[in-house]
Amino acid sequence: MAAEFTREQVATIAALAQLELEPDELDLFAKQLGEILAYAEEVQQVDTTGVPPTASVVTRHPSDRDDALVPSLDRDEALANAPDAALDAGLFKVPRVIG
Amino acid sequence: MSAAMTIVGIGEAVRSRVRSAVEICREALQRIEALDPQLRAFNTVVADRALTRARDIDEHPQDWHDRPLAGVPVALKDNLCTRGVRTTASSRILDTFVPPYDATAVARLEGAGAVIVGKTNCDEFAMGSSTENSAFGPARNPWAMDRIPGGSSGGSAAAVAAGMVPLAIGSDTGGSIRQPASLCGIVGLKPTYGRVSRYGLLAFGSSLDQIGPMTRTVADAAVSLGVIAGADAADATSVPEPVADYRSALTGDVRGVRIGVPRALLDGVDPDVGGAVRTALDTLVARGAALVDIELPHARHAIAVYYLVATAEASSNLARYDGVRYGFRAAASDLKGMYAQTRAQGFGPEVKRRIMLGTYVLSAGYYDAYYLKAQQVRTLILRDYDRAFERADVVAMPTSPTPAFPIGARAADPLQMYLADVFTVSANLAGLPAVSVPCGFSQDHLPIGLQLTGRRFDEATILRIADAYERDTEWATRTPPIATR
């Protein structure tokens, strides 16, 4: 695994993460992500043959809740924080999606 | 700070009507007003709301006086949702966000009689170890104003250490309660994963995050845990394990308790830190505890594992901040541009770095080598602890390898900053409860913390040991110079 990043690789990751980066950020992150991953590579040395992954440490789950109707968030409250929401129509609003 | 400014002291004063909740609330607000311009511990102070609430408690003693936190001023880390009170996670992307609901922990605190006075500064989205990653500027350490208070719950730690409030709530994903508690000379408890509901905590690393109390004394932490602990239908990872009476577990008796010490891990810690921890262990031995050598052979990989797992989870959790439903939105002519520019302008550098790292380790071609591998080593770290707990009842370590460092000292080197978490991250990876309790000062008069890690859901034992230690020392009575002015 290469622990060095090119600006192009950083730009590809940024696009996946929906982040628009400035040119100087591309250079900085190329250096810093490379350094952090070079350190993190040490996990490769550990023998994990036959070791299952741990995704969660929860050992006991509560029983399923009743399948009952409960009040949910009021629509006006749900829209109250939305930038540029169409409050009368009860809708979130976003910029143009299709060219 | 006087002893009357502990939770236990306030409870007694309010119940016996020696002091009113309004008086206590005003005192807290005055201290905040006097000290916060320097400390920057708070993002938001809700003075009117707090006084209204305190008045209600005074006017209805029959409803409130038997509650465990009646009239206790509380500060909340600004990543806990508070209905009607701005909740920012110290991020520009949420700087106008007013939640329409309360976090379960917040509702439980208020139900127990707590008076919320404000929201505390933290690293943006709880990502950091110094509170320097706050969009609102760094908080300061009350013991040394040119130093960091630790992080990410640095504002909460500074507020308690400076005597502004007897209780602040923090969140801990890799040490964010314990490390600032240690660096500010207070008690900080990260409960077992699943002990406290995470509902309403702005998610960072969902398999690691826990909410917990930060206080002046261990007894206060015990009382607070009793209030916020317990299963919650709104968080499927909260566990229906009975909630112990943590306060009555504080018997002072540690005879026969086996304290595991991973000596190999302690090489290379700051000499003042190592000395203070050894002296603290001697104190516990004098009370009847026994030290046993243990090994945690995979603990040296914990930081690498943590920064792979936590960033992967963060990159997924923070995908929701897209400018559509809440928070900041950048002007843009099309939807994709709006997403990318909102996130570019709304997030600070450390959050971007972690989102990038997490996106990379989860991406096709690298998932197995990084994320899956890290999860396998996480299993080995868990097994190390299981084995240690066959020989020992708790594991003792320093909380932080060094005392508080100067503001700016590590800001340019993220990896150096990550190494500050060497002793704290493994409790999160293994889901174990851990407490930091003050155990002395460095030659520069900076606080040092002892960390005790326990078995799953055995907060009672680590609190009992920490309390017994506290009884034999006078660290809990020390106050920073700024708080005595």
Keywords:
heterodimer, A: 99 residues, mainly alpha, Histone, subunit A, 3 helices, 0% strand, flat, B: 485 residues, alpha/beta, Amidase signature (AS) enzymes, eleven-stranded mixed β-sheet
Describe the 3D structure.
The complex is a heterodimer of chains A (99) and B (485). Chain A has 99 residues and is mainly α. Chain A has a domain at 7-45: Histone, subunit A (Orthogonal Bundle). Chain A is built from three helices and no strands. The longest helix of chain A is centred in the N-terminal third of the chain and has 18 residues, at 23-40. In chain A, 16% of the residues are buried. The model of chain A has no long low-confidence stretch (mean pLDDT 90). Chain B has 485 residues and is α/β, with parallel strands linked by helices. Chain B has a domain at 3-254 and 433-484: Amidase signature (AS) enzymes (Alpha-Beta Complex). Helix content of chain B is 39%, strand content 12%. Chain B contains 17 helices and eleven strands. Chain B has helices at 7-15, 21-39, 47-59, 61-64, 104-111, 154-161, 178-184, 218-228, 271-286, 302-317, 335-346, 349-362, 367-391, 414-418, 425-430, 459-471, 481-484, and strands spanning 42-45, 73-77, 115-120, 167-172, 187-190, 210-215, 258-261, 290-293, 394-398, 434-441, 447-454. The radius of gyration of chain B is 21 Å and the shape is globular. The chains are: A mainly alpha (99), B alpha/beta (485).
